[in-house]
Amino acid sequence: MKILAVATDNFEFYYEIVKELKQRDIAFVSLSPTDPIPPNVDLVITTSKEAEGIEFENVIGIEEDIRKGVRKALSILKGKQTYQKMLVGIDPGTQPGIALIGDGKILETMHADSPEDVRKKVEGFIEDYSFRRMTVRIGHGDKTNRNRTITSLKGLAVRIEIVNEEDTTKLTEAPDIEAAKKIALSSGDLAKGTYDVEATEGEMREMQRRSRIKSGDITISKKLAKKVVEGDLEMDEAINEQKEEED
């Protein structure tokens, strides 16, 4: 089994790198840069400055982007400098579930902060991984958030498919992540043309309900709720606007 070592005396760096590794359930050993490297270690992660003093064949010195460094390290550990086929599965929602699969293996799972934030996540995959081709697959449910997600991805050099996501949800702690995994592995129809985003009455009522919960006593107007649902306004902004109108 290939082992990763984190060798650093920089507490702040150690904290951030360990947090990133634990989120991915990646086993590692902790070392000081002056410690001898155990024979079962295949790769060392450290800061760029500390890397200069570590005599080992495979050392990755990370400047600032922790996530990018970890992605590079995991690709090396998996022996995959370049993936032939990258699949991104997205379970649409207000905070979409995302699964990244490279050549049949799950590389990462995460949540986006919003449908529009999915673009940033996919751009990160494109920048940090080497691959031949990438397909982004989005579940067909939750039409409004699905269309917001597709719209956000316009201009990226990836194939976008819409997948029938029936029977993808499981009774787990993170059903949207499980759904995203299944969506990634399911063929879909090519997304073509323009996908309009139009809030439904039910979605606007739900957003008004959420505004009361978040603010404690303020219900945003239907007009503001529509903007929030369609991604033109953040909830905090809508609540503030409602406050100003009522004052």
Q: Can you offer a commentary on this structure?
A:
- The protein has three domains: 3-77, Rossmann fold (3-Layer(aba) Sandwich), CATH 3.40.50.2300; 83-190, Nucleotidyltransferase, domain 5, CATH 3.30.420; 201-246.
- 39% of the residues lie in helices and 23% in strands.
- It contains nine helices and ten strands.
- Strands 7-6-5-8-9-10 form a six-stranded mixed beta sheet. Strands 2-1-3-4 form a four-stranded parallel beta sheet.
- Strand 5 (83-91) and strand 6 (97-102) form a beta hairpin.
- The radius of gyration is 21 Å and the shape is globular.
Summarize this structure as a short list of keywords or feature phrases.
single chain; 247 residues; alpha/beta; Rossmann fold; Nucleotidyltransferase, domain 5; 3 domains; six-stranded mixed beta sheet; 9 helices; 10 strands; 23% strand; globular
Low-confidence regions: none
Cα-atom radius of gyration: 21 Å
Number of domains: 3
Helix/strand/pairing class, anyone?
alpha/beta
CATH topology of the largest domain: Nucleotidyltransferase, domain 5
The count of strands amounts to: 10
Q: H/E series, N to C? A: EHEEHEHEEEHEHEHEHHH
- The proportion of strand residues reads 15-25%
Helix content: 25-40%
Widest sheet, order of strands: 7-6-5-8-9-10
**Sheet bearing the most strands, described?**
6 strands, mixed
User: Given the C-alpha coordinates, what overall shape results?
Assistant: globular
Mean pLDDT, all residues: 89
What is the distance, rounded to the nearest whole angstrom, between the alpha carbons of the first and last residues? Answer: 64 Å
